[in-house]
Design goal:
Layout: E1 3-7, H1 17-21, E2 27-31, E3 37-41, H2 53-57, E4 63-66, H3 86-94, H4 109-120, E5 132-136, H5 139-149, H6 151-161, H7 163-166, H8 172-179, H9 181-195, E6 207-214, H10 220-237, E7 241-244, H11 246-254, H12 256-261, E8 268-277
Antiparallel strand pairs: 1-4, 2-3, 5-6, 6-8, 7-8
């Protein structure tokens, strides 16, 4: 496990940048009997949450650590804006689309690994980094899960047949959907296409990535969402298409048996499912978005 061990006294130039960067104040200045200044590291109560700020700010790479890969050195690290302007960033993010039409082409292990690597470096609450991934790239495994997720639609159709009995006992969004005539139309269309062999769950994507984790705080789901966003943007940078599959996430979140069947360990829940593949469609422009809801208290 990644652990800060201390300071290399030979390399340390006593600039105190590690002291300034540590939010839990594990670095301090000590004075010897002859008033020589020394930088000291102590983590008696294991407050360190391995954010790595001390490693990032040290000009002489004097921070000692173990259980992690080497720090990433590159010239733009001091000024990341040199890598990507705001204008280019907005072009990049606005051209990402939810892809549901894919080429009949498998992803390489290298492509999938790059996406996972981007997700590995996504931020998490208290830097827990406690997210786990399952990758499905075999056609039969994806088809198996798609068939299981379809059971949600079977249940929905049953409820719909009894809607007038169920409505008095429901409220909110469920009540609204039961009474909405579109619901029946969509369910009928789903089962019609399913009978024709059309994949309405994963859209024949060659890869499904599932993120699961123990519920360590109320931030667990947010951490998963950030990781998936990193993965989607990484895929976009490689010319790949992605789509978050809410039906699959809902099924795996609800049914313990479903989680067990795909290898999610006991005590973990599923916080996101998305598909990846080579997009069949070519998008020519970025569509508009509605204005954000904003309460700016200046």
């Amino acid at each position: 496990m990644f652990k800060i061990l201390g300071i290399d006294k030979e390399k340390c130039i006593k600039c105190e940048k590690c002291i300034q960067s540590c939010s839990v104040e594990l670095f301090s200045v000590e004075r010897t009997d002859d008033m020589e200044k020394k930088i000291h590291f102590a983590d008696t109560y294991r407050f360190c949450f391995r954010c790595g700020h001390c490693i990032s700010v040290c000009p002489t790479e004097a921070i000692l650590y173990e259980g992690a890969d080497e720090a990433f050195n590159f010239k733009e690290a001091k000024n990341p804006s040199l890598l990507l302007s705001y204008e280019d960033f907005m072009k990049f993010t606005r051209t990402r689309r939810s892809t549901r039409v894919f080429k009949n082409q498998q992803l390489s292990e290298e492509e999938i690994t790059k996406i996972l690597e981007a997700m590995r470096y996504s931020p998490s609450a208290s830097n827990r980094q406690n997210r786990h991934y399952i990758v499905l790239s075999k056609e039969e495994d994806i088809a198996f899960l798609a068939n299981k997720v379809s059971h949600l639609m079977v249940k929905a159709r049953r409820y719909l047949k009894l809607k007038y009995l169920a409505v008095p006992f429901t409220s909110g969004l469920l009540r609204k959907r039961l009474l909405n005539p579109k619901t029946k139309v969509r369910l009928d269309d789903f089962f019609k296409k399913k009978s024709e062999g059309v994949d309405q769950i994963f859209f024949n994507a060659p890869c499904v990535i599932i993120i699961h984790a123990p519920s360590y705080s109320r931030m667990t789901a947010s951490d998963a969402g950030i990781a998936i966003t990193h993965g989607m943007l990484a895929a976009h940078s490689m010319g790949l298409g992605t789509c978050w599959i809410g039906f699959a996430q809902e099924y795996l979140s609800r049914f313990k048996k479903g989680r067990k069947q795909i290898g999610v360990p006991r005590g973990h829940n599923v916080y996101g499912v998305f598909i990846v593949g080579h997009p069949e469609q070519e998008f020519l422009r970025a569509p508009p978005r509605r204005e954000i809801y904003l309460d700016w208290r200046k």
